[in-house]
Amino acid sequence: MSATILTDGQSAPAADPGAELRRRAKRRRAGKTLLLHIGILALAAVMLYPGVWMLLSSFRPTNEIVGQTGLIPDNTTLDNFRTAFEGIGGVSFWTFFTNSMILAVGSAVGVCLSCSVSAYAFARIDFPGRNLFFSLMIGTLLLPFHVVIIPQFIMFNEIGWTDSYMPLLIGKFLAAEAFFVFLMVQFMRNLPRELDESARIDGAGHVRIFTAIMLPLMRPVLATASIFAFIWSWNDFLAPLIYLRTPDKYPLPLMLRQYTDQTSVSDYGGQMAAAVLALAPVLIFFILFQRYIVEGVATQGLKG
């Protein structure tokens, strides 16, 4: 390595070319990271803009909502929220809210109870035709809901369950949600079978193994399933529209539709305020339990 001669006769080491290359590589990485963050922020702004516009539009007067795409309202009012809390069609907002809560909580409970039992049978019990039945169940995921609407409606109408919550909840308690069964089966397959064998040696049966061993280990996937079931049921519009006819039984999605009428005046301000109120519980529920989604989908039964 060459050296530089100083005026006092001493020599100083020359600059290290490797250090200069490392500095350049570091600057390139910093530039790429900056561009990546800018791109992510721009994408997030595009995705969040409709929600932010809806939130701010709930404070606009109704006559200023249609035709205006600006984000900041010129005038603000709380009349839209007062209108939303009063309800519509003679039914209060809290009636719609209670109906949605009954359907969402009932769906979450039904999915966790029925799908966990079915998943235990597929994952832990050897019975004739298990693989065939499991394949048929997975095949139902390929069947669109719209294909079975008419036969299901005819069946429930013959039974006399239309205009009730039974058609909306009965499938949740009969393990008809193949996605959640599949999710729990995959989770259970990652749990060591030595746990079952040890419990069986101690005289435990399937009921004891399921309740005392499997359920405590399944808390992440049960939380994930309940979150998805709650949100999907809360946001469901088509099924309640098909089976419910009495406004007193409508959930919030059907309430939002009533604010828009093509034959008369539409209350867009009340609709925006009601949409914000309907969205708030889902956001709170998701924020509180979002960590369980990652744990459940990762299908990690044991830690250590």
TrEMBL record:
<feature type="transmembrane region" description="Helical">
    <location>
        <begin position="268"/>
        <end position="289"/>
    </location>
</feature>
<comment type="similarity">
    <text>Belongs to the binding-protein-dependent transport system permease family.</text>
</comment>
<protein>
    <submittedName>
        <fullName>Carbohydrate ABC transporter permease</fullName>
    </submittedName>
</protein>
<dbReference type="InterPro" id="IPR000515">
    <property type="entry name" value="MetI-like"/>
</dbReference>
<feature type="domain" description="ABC transmembrane type-1">
    <location>
        <begin position="97"/>
        <end position="289"/>
    </location>
</feature>
<keyword id="KW-1133">Transmembrane helix</keyword>
<feature type="region of interest" description="Disordered">
    <location>
        <begin position="1"/>
        <end position="20"/>
    </location>
</feature>
<keyword id="KW-1003">Cell membrane</keyword>
<keyword id="KW-0472">Membrane</keyword>
<dbReference type="InterPro" id="IPR035906">
    <property type="entry name" value="MetI-like_sf"/>
</dbReference>
<keyword id="KW-0812">Transmembrane</keyword>
<feature type="transmembrane region" description="Helical">
    <location>
        <begin position="132"/>
        <end position="154"/>
    </location>
</feature>
<feature type="compositionally biased region" description="Polar residues">
    <location>
        <begin position="1"/>
        <end position="10"/>
    </location>
</feature>
<feature type="transmembrane region" description="Helical">
    <location>
        <begin position="209"/>
        <end position="234"/>
    </location>
</feature>
<feature type="transmembrane region" description="Helical">
    <location>
        <begin position="101"/>
        <end position="123"/>
    </location>
</feature>
<feature type="transmembrane region" description="Helical">
    <location>
        <begin position="34"/>
        <end position="56"/>
    </location>
</feature>
<dbReference type="Pfam" id="PF00528">
    <property type="entry name" value="BPD_transp_1"/>
</dbReference>
<keyword id="KW-0813">Transport</keyword>
<feature type="transmembrane region" description="Helical">
    <location>
        <begin position="166"/>
        <end position="188"/>
    </location>
</feature>
